[in-house]
Amino acid sequence: MRISAVVHALCDRDGVAVPGWVYKHRSRRPIGLAASLDPTTEWARIALADAPSACAYHDVWFDQAMIENITVHGFRD
């Protein structure tokens, strides 16, 4: 589910079609991208107010800044 949420958010960010398999993976309860994040806490709700729309679909939560920061997604030269 976490991978699907990230793929979905990256596709939305880049204007690329979301692969069909992504829509088949949704959490039954709110979870954070990092296992240590509990999205049901008040702090998390405030921090994740700017989460990508893909988060709501998958109920997997991370903030917009995480998906915009390309240094966390790949290798540097």
Mean pLDDT rating: 86
Label the overall shape: globular
**Order of strands, widest sheet:** 1-2
Amount of beta strand: 5-15%
Task: Compute the number of helices.
Answer: 4
Our measurement of the CA-to-CA distance between the termini, rounded to an integer number of angstroms, reads 30 Å
What does the radius of gyration come to? Answer: 12 Å
Q: Tell me the number of strands.
A: 2
Give the helices and strands as they follow along the chain.
HEHHEH
Q: Which class of secondary structure composition applies to the elements?
A: mainly alpha
Largest sheet: 2 strands, parallel
Low-confidence stretches: none
- Residue share in helix: 25-40%
Q: Layout of SSEs?
A:
Layout: H1 2-14, E1 31-32, H2 42-47, H3 53-58, E2 60-61, H4 64-68
Parallel strand pairs: 1-2
Q: What is the structure about, briefly put?
A:
By secondary structure, the chain is mainly α. It contains four helices and two strands.
Task: Provide structural commentary.
The chain is mainly alpha-helical and 77 residues long. Helix content is 39%, strand content 5%. It has four helices and two strands, in the order H-E-H-H-E-H. It has a two-stranded parallel ribbon with strand order 1-2. The longest helix has 13 residues, at 2-14. The model has no long low-confidence stretch (mean pLDDT 86).
Task: Give structural attributes.
77 residues; mainly alpha; two-stranded parallel ribbon; globular
